[in-house]
Every structure is written in C-alpha cells, then in structure tokens.
Amino acid sequence: MNNTVLRAENVRMTFDGRDAVKDLSFELGSAERVALLGHNGAGKTTFFKMSLGFLTPTDGRIEVLGAEPGSDKARASTAFLPESVAFQRTLTGVEVLKYYAKLKGEDAKKAIGLLERVGLAEAGRRRVGTYSKGMRQRLGLAQALIGTPKLVLLDEPTSGLDPISRQNFYDLVTEISGNGATVLLSSHALTEMEARTDRILIMSKGKLVANDTLDHLRTAARLPIRLKVKSKEEPAEQLANRLGGTPVNCRSVEIMCAHEDKIARIAAVTSLGAMIEDIDVHLPTLDDVYKHFSEKADLEDSAGEV
Amino acid sequence: MFQRILTVAQQEFRIGLRNRWILLSVVILSAFSMALALLGSAPAGTLDVSRMTITVASLSSLSVYLVPLIALLLAFDAVAGEIERGTLLLIFSSPMTRSEFLIGKAVGHICVLLLALTLGYGSTAMMLAATGGGDTSGFIDFARLIGTSAILGFAFLSLGYIVSSLVRQVTTAAAMAIGIWLVLIVLYDLALLGALVADSEGFFASSVFPFALLANPADAFRLFNLSALDANAMVGGMAGVAESLPFPPIAALASIFAFAGVAMSGAILLLKRVSP
C-alpha cells in the first residue's frame, strides 16, 4: 500500500505574473496531523484550492491518494472546511448537515450523529442564523467529518474561536486522526497548536521554509532557552554575578542559554540550593520559532534579489 | 447523479419556503390577479366569452412582467451567493458536478415558481368559479397559463444563472438581473413599437417584427397564450398579429423552450469555468 495521502512536487502557481506559490514540495502520510503555518497571503489557501482541483498549478503536480486533485477518486475521500463559510441562515444545523451528507452520497441519518460529536446535539434543530461563531465553525467541522475521509483539509479552522472552543476543536482533530485520517490544517494562530500537531510546515511568500516536527524545528532554529531564576533574599546583581545573565528586577535574573547547555545551567542554578526560591524554564514558543523561520526566508529572499 | 440533483432541488425549495420567497410571490401574484379578475373581466358580459378566459388573457400580460422578475430574483444568488458565502467550495469539493448543481438549482426554483403560480393564479380561478364564472375551458386556460408561465420562468432563471456565474459579487449579479428585466421586458417592446410605428407597412413589419417577437421569450409567451385563447379575436392587442404571423403559434412555445435550453447550457458552460 502506498502510504502517501497528499504529495506536492515542485508546485508553482502564478497569478498575473506573480508567484503565489513556488517550489512547494512535501508529502503527508496517513493519519498525520500537520499544521500549515503562514501569514496572510503566504499561499495557504491557494495551496488548498490546488489540492481540491479548483486551481491548476502553473508548474509541478499535486497528488491526492495517487490521483489527480478534483478527480472523482480524490474528491470521494477528501473533506474540506473553507476559511470562512456561512451556511444558509434560515436552515437548521440538521438540515445543513443532511444536505452535505447527501451530496457526498453518505447516509444522512448517520451524519446527524456527528452533531453530537461536535457538541451541537441540542442546537441541531435551531436555525444556523442563531448560532455563535464557534457553533458555526463546529457545524463546518461536522460537515467535514461526514463519511470516512482519508484527507481532511481545514483552512484556518480556529480563527475567531475563543480558547475553550479552540481546545475542543483540537480534541476533535486528534480524534479524527485517531480514526486514520490525515489532517492538514492551516493557521496563523501559532502557539495554540504546540502539542496538537505531529509536524509543522511553514510557508512564507509562497515558499516552504520549514517542514519538521516542532522539536526538530526548535533545535534547528537554535533559539536560546530562557531561564528565569528568583533568589530568596540575595539581590539580583549578586545572583547575576554567580550565574551569568542579566538582572530583570531586584530579585530575578534572566539567563539565556543554548539548548545543549540547558542541563548544565540548571545544575549550576540548583547547586546554589537554599539561595534560590524559584526557577522558570521558558522554551522558545512556536511563535518564536515561526518568526525565526519566516524572517530567515525574508533575508534569503532579499539576498537573492540584490 | 439524480440523487444529488434532487438533493439540491429539495434544499432550494426548502430555502424558498423558509425565507418566505414563495409566500411573497403568492401574495403578489394573487393580489394582482384578483384585482385584474375583478376589474378586468367586466367586458365578459358584453363580449359573450367566459370570465375565466378573459381573465387569463389579462393574466398573460401580468405574467410577462411578474414571472421574469420573480425568476431573476430567485436566480441571481445561485452561484455568486454561494461563492460569497464560501459554500460553493464545499459543494464542489464533494463529488457533485457543475451541471448537476445548476440543474438541481433550476429544478428547485421551477418548483418554487410552480407552487407560487398555482397558489397565486389558482386562488383567482377558484374565486371566479365560486362566483359562477367557472367552466371547463376556463380551467384549461388557467392550467395552460400556469404551465407556460413556469416555462417562461425557466428561461429567465437561466438568464439569472448566467449573470450569477459571470460575476463574483451578489450585488453586481442582482443589478445585472434587474437590468436584464428592464431591457427584455420593458425596453425591448418599446423599441419594437417604435420601429413598427416608423415603418408600419414595410419590410420590418412583415419580415423582422414577427421573428423579433419570437426571439424574446416574454413576447413569445404572450403571443402563444393569446393565440391559444378562444377569445383571441375579442381580446385585441396582439390578436391581429397572431393571425398574420408567418409561423404557427406553437412555434412561439418552442422558441421559449429553445431560449431556455440555450441559456441553461450557456450558464452551465460558464459555471464550469468558475473557480469557487
């Protein structure tokens, strides 16, 4: 069995002579949860539209389960949630879901069960016009879960959701991939998905600038780890003298260190024993990593232009 | 395939019921047709034709104005609206094809129109029958009016789908739909009338004018319905024309069908080029 669910090979897409996507190559395996990150206009939505067969790449090719995007085979096993979808306000959640189930040739009654999974069992009989933003988004996700899609594409599914709804949303994503579906979701909300994805793709100006697990990206970025040490009584200056680092207020010191020095530095701190009241370890966040990679791409870009 | 067409059609019909489009159309159609039946059937006594038949004659002229308007207003949102709401992306990421989608929309909208016409005009027919003006041929006239109105509606629905597939903004599509109504229903007839007055005996009147009527589904509709009524001679207006036509009246009906078919195919071709 071929394990590749989605394959992009040197994909380039040009709009009016401007490259929206260029040199994009990656593969998604089955049951992977992958985040596609990029700021607005980085080419994420363009890539989704190409994967669905709505746009044809100028160069290169995309394969969905070994088939052409937009072909019957590809469409039968792909589910999609667009960035901003507004279902008919006058219809109920149940009616909307039944409609899409029938379009996909799936059992409409079974699809109703999905409302429960996304927490809309109660609201299913109400009109979509009365739903909150989070509820509409969950209805959209329920729509994407109809049948047994092998590839689920979610375009900025969590934009505008409150933290609790977002948590629930990722719980569902984990459940979907647990059932064997590959999930590719795009976002520019970065920190929220640290533990929620197996792999991260970062796009910047249409180019793929990173493709790895978060841990590997962290290591590759070589971003410093920040240790914040708080003394019991001693003034911060004294602490800074003994440990290195810079005082941030009268009793705390901030130490920046490389990943591989982390343990040694912490050992140095703990050796001071009773002097220390507390220690905080701040790993670089996804925001930091993301910023690092997209800025690196910018630098390479401007270097290429000169 | 039929399952998917039926699904779209059902959904359109449900939306029509839910957003009160059908209700509004029924109210407008029945109000106008009742008014015409009550005021306009007065000459029936003196002309010795049934009140129903003479009402149908007036209602054909009403249909020419209202049915295309209702159809265009139903249709302009069909593609542009789904693009704006983002739902077209969803629909076409399912196994549905472009032609299935548009045919489903058309079936649903025609059902909306048929229901509105049947309730709107039917209530007038019932009122006439209840007040002693009913007869079998009158009911047949009403049935023909409703049926041909639906076909006329189909022609204008297809025009609406064309504008809806041409532009991505709903508001632009709406403006274009109103423009089409103005040109084909109002200005077209005025232009023909002007040309006819300018050249009442010559080449235009004899060779161009009849085909110009045939080419516009609204005029073809009026032509067919009036010539199909027994009371043709007494109704006047188009009656003289119908008799001096170089083709049988059924050609007018065929022309509406042909127009609708061509416009619908055009709309499907345009939709195939739309990137949702």
What would you note in describing this structure?
Chain B: The chain crosses the membrane at residues 21-42, 62-80, 101-122, 142-163, 175-198, 250-271. Chain B: This is Cu-processing system permease protein. Chain B: It comes from Pseudovibrio ascidiaceicola. The complex is a heterodimer of chains A (306) and B (276). Chain A has 306 residues and is an alpha/beta fold. In chain A, 40% of the residues are buried. In chain A, strand 6 (151-154), helix 6 and strand 7 (182-187) form a beta-alpha-beta unit. Helices cover 35% and strands 27% of the residues of chain A. A six-stranded mixed beta sheet of chain A has the order 5-6-7-3-8-9, with helices on both faces. A four-stranded antiparallel beta sheet of chain A has the order 11-12-10-13, covered by helices on one side. Chain B is mainly alpha-helical. Helix content of chain B is 83%, strand content 0%. Chain B has 14 helices and no strands. The longest helix of chain B has 33 residues, at 98-130. Chain B is globular and about 60 Å long. At the A-B interface, helix 2, strand 5 and helix 3 of A face helix 1 and helix 6 of B.
